[in-house]
User: What shape does this take?
Amino acid sequence: MPVLLETALPNMFRRGKVRDTYDLGEHLLMVATDRISAFDVVLPTGIPDKGAVLTQLSAYWFEHNGHIIKNHLVETILEPAQLEPYRDRLGGDPGALVGRSMLVRRAEPVLVECVVRGYLAGSGWAEYRRYGTLAGESLPGGMRESEELPEPRFTPSTKAESGHDENISIREMENLVGAELTAKLRRSSIAVYEHARNLARARGIIIADTKFEFGLVDGEVILIDEALTPDSSRFWGTVNYRPGIAPPSFDKQYVRDWLVESGWDKEPPAPELPAEVVAKTTQMYREAYERITGHTLHSTID
Assistant: This one.
């Protein structure tokens, strides 16, 4: 099938903006659909192979950052036989789930988005232009758009089930989850970002910023959901990068830019994406995966 916008299996645990998660007893099955959201609104148009990229790139990063912090991944589903033990719970043919699903540990989510910024872009650039700060903390004067920060900054935000996430200060995060957990998440987020940034840069990709989600298992902090994907990160090519402009990206910024130019007011319902925007987005997501990992994507397109 060209796109999978929704799954409707038994034992639904949670449906998010992009992922459908199912209860398999000891573990959960997290299915990345081809839905795409922008400005916290799910669009009506799917992106072929998007779910495959999110799942397989997350699995890559979970493996390569496991020495820094544990994560929720049990196994990535790349063959139908891996789901045979769960056929009674899932029902039907599991073939549509292959390449886009992972079996994960249950965790109690920490309800804060842990954002790390290595470059001055997006809402961070907008704040700096207005106030000279990033997440309320000062930055050197005279910085340019897309310029690398003196050091990565931790800039958390709320995690909204619907509607818009909102940037918060570290003090506000401490009030929400406690100072000790905030410090742990800040250290872990920056450490994972720095390790991934260095690996990706050597392969021609700049990770300008990213966001992580964490959970607790028996009191231990682990990395959950997705990691360092084109949905959760801002990817630039090293060849076209220079401070002072917004470089071409390998993420959903291309979709955001089209939506802004279309005149959409960022409120539901969102417009359909034209075929050329869909095709270009698929191409960029695949290229990000293949550049970073050096592997060919296990495609979900028949």
